[in-house]
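A reminder from the course coordinator: this example appears on the midterm review sheet, so study it carefully.

Given structure:
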């Protein structure tokens, strides 16, 4: 018997209290899977170290990300650790996402485009996958989503997707001239026009940076028909990541028109939450924004630009290819409990087309009030 150890952060909540989660998993041999105590500083630091040392470790597997999501959205942070002889050999961070519209899901990780398990070479992660299925049932969550990492391809109830999304990562060039010349001709012409325009750049993480970014991002996602995340999520990420996150804003005669909140991890910059106003396109402010971020990241010592993921064949997919990025298919896995319907919270799903069209017509103040309440459950 392997213990399902001390409760994770927020373990005393209704539907997920310690009385519900401390029962042991049914495991064999000497492998133990337990819940990490993310409120214990030593354990959190140890897991940060595990992510930092692992070749496949990402920013979204860091306990700092889990903690920021919990603080910013109220969605519970949990982490499963697989050990042998007291040594961590696999780790799976998850967010317990509850939505009154889309139900409950364990996502690895919440509000992230990546995540999934980190497993040492030669280790069988089957106990970890069995544990996350049981953890989901104990929390009345009929679904699990793994957004990367080793996937349970042979386990019943799991569905693997390999063609729905692609990632885009490119090495940064050694200087500004080389960076500009590395951009394909048509896109480079747009960047040159942006550089010749009356645009200025501001980088920081202060109160004005945060306020301008959120206003622009909220308008941008409303225009796309998507509810905006709560501002508290962005605040929690910036506060929790310190020097590993910042905001770059493009201004036109002092007026913010485009802005992006970026994450930094192991020599790569990822522009994560970004957007522009209606006027940004004509000003080519987004083109200037991403080029300036490449320059800024290189000055910080970064070697790669991670443009995140996009749905295969989408407009964002084509936009990133226009910048010279080569799409790399990503693999995701979803588990659905026996007898439960599959969860569909994909904003690009045809099932939500009517809602998206309606959302685009909402006045911005109304969208900004309703959006965070809905978006905090999208995960």
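Designed residues:
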């Amino acid at each position: 018997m392997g213990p399902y150890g001390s409760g994770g952060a927020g373990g005393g909540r209704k539907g997920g209290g310690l009385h519900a989660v401390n029962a042991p998993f049914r495991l064999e041999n000497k492998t133990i899977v337990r819940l990490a105590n993310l409120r214990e500083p030593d354990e959190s630091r140890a897991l940060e170290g595990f992510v930092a040392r692992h070749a496949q470790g990402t920013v979204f597997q860091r306990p700092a990300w889990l903690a920021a999501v919990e603080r910013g959205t109220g969605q519970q942070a949990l982490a499963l650790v697989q050990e042998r002889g007291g040594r961590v050999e696999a780790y799976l961070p998850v967010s317990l996402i509850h939505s009154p519209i889309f139900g409950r899901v364990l996502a690895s990780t919440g509000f992230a485009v990546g995540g999934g398990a980190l497993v040492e070479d030669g280790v069988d992660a089957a106990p970890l996958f069995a544990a996350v299925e049981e953890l989901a049932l104990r929390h009345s969550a009929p679904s699990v989503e793994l957004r990367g990492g080793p996937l349970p391809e042979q386990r019943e109830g799991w569905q693997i997707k390999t063609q729905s999304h692609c990632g885009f990562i490119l090495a940064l060039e050694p200087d500004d001239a080389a960076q500009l010349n590395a951009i394909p001709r048509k896109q480079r012409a747009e960047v040159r026009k942006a550089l010749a325009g009356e645009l200025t750049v501001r980088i920081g993480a202060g109160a004005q940076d945060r306020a301008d970014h959120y206003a622009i991002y909220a308008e941008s996602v409303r225009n796309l028909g998507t509810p905006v995340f709560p501002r508290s999520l962005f605040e929690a990420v910036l506060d929790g990541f310190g020097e590993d996150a910042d905001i770059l804003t493009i201004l036109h005669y002092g007026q913010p028109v485009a802005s992006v909140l970026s994450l930094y991890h192991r020599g790569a910059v990822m522009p994560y939450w970004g957007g522009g106003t209606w006027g940004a396109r004509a000003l080519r402010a987004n083109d200037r924004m991403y080029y300036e971020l490449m320059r800024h990241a290189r000055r910080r010592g970064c070697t790669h630009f991670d443009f995140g993921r996009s749905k295969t064949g989408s407009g964002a997919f084509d936009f990133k290819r226009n910048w010279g990025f080569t799409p790399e298919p990503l693999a995701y896995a979803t588990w659905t409990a026996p007898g439960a319907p599959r969860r569909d919270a994909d904003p690009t799903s045809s099932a939500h087309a009517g809602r998206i069209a309606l959302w685009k017509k909402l006045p911005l103040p109304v969208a900004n009030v309703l959006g965070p309440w809905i978006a905090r459950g999208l995960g």
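The chain has two domains: 18-162+331-345, 166-329. Residues 1-21 have pLDDT under 50 and may be disordered.
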